[in-house]
Amino acid sequence: MFRGIIFTLIAGIAFGFSPVISTLVYNNGGDPMTLVFLRYAYMIPASLSIVLFKKKELRLPAEQMLKLVFVAVGCSLVSSLTLYMSYQWIDPGVSTAIHFMYPVILVVLSLIIFKDKIDKKTIIALAFSIGGTLSIVEFGQSGSILGVVFAIVSSFAYSMYLLLNEKWRLAELDSMVFLFYVSVFCTLTMLVMMPLGFKINLNQPIENHLVMIVVALLTSCVGLLFMKEGVRLLGSRIASVISMSEPISALVFSALLLHSEVTISTVIGAVFIITAILILLYKPKRKRVKVSDTTHEKMTTNELNESKI
């Protein structure tokens, strides 16, 4: 379990760092749509090279391939696109708060669809993580119902991504094979979407492409892979709670690199999220059952009788 928690924390740190350096792209003429596209596109040759080097099998059963298509396009891509699109309609703080409700959505979905059970420790940790996220995020004007809808869709899609990775056993696939197919399906889908009005501007300064490569490595190669391993080792519900470390890492990197202000509420929120992780880590010691002298005597007598027989 400890290794799964470490993997999920690393994924949260990677996801938290990527939005901070993405601002460099936006300030230099980039846009979210192009960033999402190049994030997946750059990972195709990188992941394929590793797959070929490791001599991994790319052929998968048709049923498993269809599941991969749905998780890649219907979950990963939809979550990324709708989250970035929501920023254009509502305050990013509101959008982020809605998106980070995905652990709640995940628990509800697992209860309704898969009839899973949830223990008290997970519920308490979930409450702390949600309270921490709400404390970190600064709420502004809602701005548009459409923006709220985009943020909800993003949260729902990411919940399904985590849940289906576990339930469909996709987390058991080789990590690089998984990443390769997700990158291919998402890239092809965005190319098909271009005639529908989704603009992708590939004419970017070289600095933007370098930053986008870093974002691709952080979000796809590090974030997605470590999160996938976290889901495999911990399960989707516990991994979703621990991944709430992402807002904390985003705050730390924003303060260090962008000199963003750190308020008391953000510190309290960070403490709440760390508390949630510690609750999941805590394992009560099992009490040793002492055998009474009377019981010991009875056992000894029974053993003697059995030996006589």
TrEMBL record:
Belongs to the EamA transporter family. The chain crosses the membrane at residues 33-53, 65-87, 93-114, 121-139, 145-164, 176-198, 210-226, 238-258, 264-282. PANTHER family: ACYL-MALONYL CONDENSING ENZYME-RELATED (PTHR22911), SOLUTE CARRIER FAMILY 35 MEMBER G2-RELATED (PTHR22911:SF137). Residues 3-136, 146-281 form the EamA domain. It comes from Erysipelothrix inopinata. This is DMT family transporter. The lineage of its organism: Bacteria, Bacillati, Bacillota, Erysipelotrichia, Erysipelotrichales. Keywords: Membrane, Transmembrane, Transmembrane helix. GO terms for cellular component: membrane. InterPro entries: EamA_dom, EmrE-like. Coiled coil: none annotated.
